[in-house]
Amino acid sequence: MGLIHKITKTDVDHAFRKTVDITPEFLKKHGIKGLILDVDNTLTTHDNPAPADGIAEWLGNMKANGIKLIIVSNNHADRVKKFADPLGLDFVSDSGKPLKRGYIAAMQKMGLSPKETAAVGDQLFTDVWGANIAKIMMLYVQPIELEPKSKRFIRFKRVLEKPFLPKKFVDVTKE
């Protein structure tokens, strides 16, 4: 990423087209032992209590490979709990992203340092800023879908994000 990304805190360490493209091998190669996961448009669509296609299997594969997982979301506890509990995931709700407090709480729960932790998310002004402020690796993923019209503020932020979005993605066929 260029200087403008450094200045605006919109730099990402690696970009993936989909969450399920992130592999345990990729994480281990980069010294990552735990993932801080966003929910909406990263693991499922907005307000959906069920994971998107392939996510449950992906989470199982991560766990089987010793990768610690925790959700950090700006959503309220009732929304996050309905999603996280069936998947056996711990979570930090009402996290205040992009503030670092949710990231710090998640790392403490996982017992990991910033160097051992990466964040996975789809929004520059919450997930990416938060990871950069918390000084952890950021794994950007493209949103699962365009937000519904009822999510006007997020749709507006998507327009503002456009110039800063990653242009290069990890080639999963080479990983």
Largest sheet: 6 strands, parallel
First-last Cα distance: 21 Å
- The helix count comes to 7
Strand order of the largest sheet: 1-6-5-2-3-4
List the helices and strands and how they pair.
Elements: H1 3-8, E1 14-16, H2 24-29, E2 34-37, H3 55-64, E3 68-72, H4 77-84, E4 90-92, H5 101-110, E5 117-121, H6 124-134, E6 137-141, H7 152-161
Parallel strand pairs: 1-6, 2-3, 2-5, 3-4, 5-6
Question: Which features does this protein show?
Answer:
globular; Rossmann fold; 14% strand; alpha/beta; 175 residues; 7 helices; 6-stranded parallel sheet
Description:
By secondary structure, this protein is an alpha/beta fold. It has one domain: HAD superfamily/HAD-like (Rossmann fold, 3-Layer(aba) Sandwich), CATH 3.40.50.1000. Helix content is 35%, strand content 14%. The protein contains 7 helices and 6 strands, in the order αβαβαβαβαβαβα. The chain has helices at 3-8, 24-29, 55-64, 77-84, 101-110, 124-134, 152-161, and strands spanning 14-16, 34-37, 68-72, 90-92, 117-121, 137-141. A 6-stranded parallel β-sheet has the order 1-6-5-2-3-4, with helices on both faces. Strand 5, helix 6 (124-134) and strand 6 (137-141) form a beta-alpha-beta unit. 38% of the residues are buried.
How do you describe this structure in short?
This protein is α/β, with parallel strands linked by helices and 175 residues long.
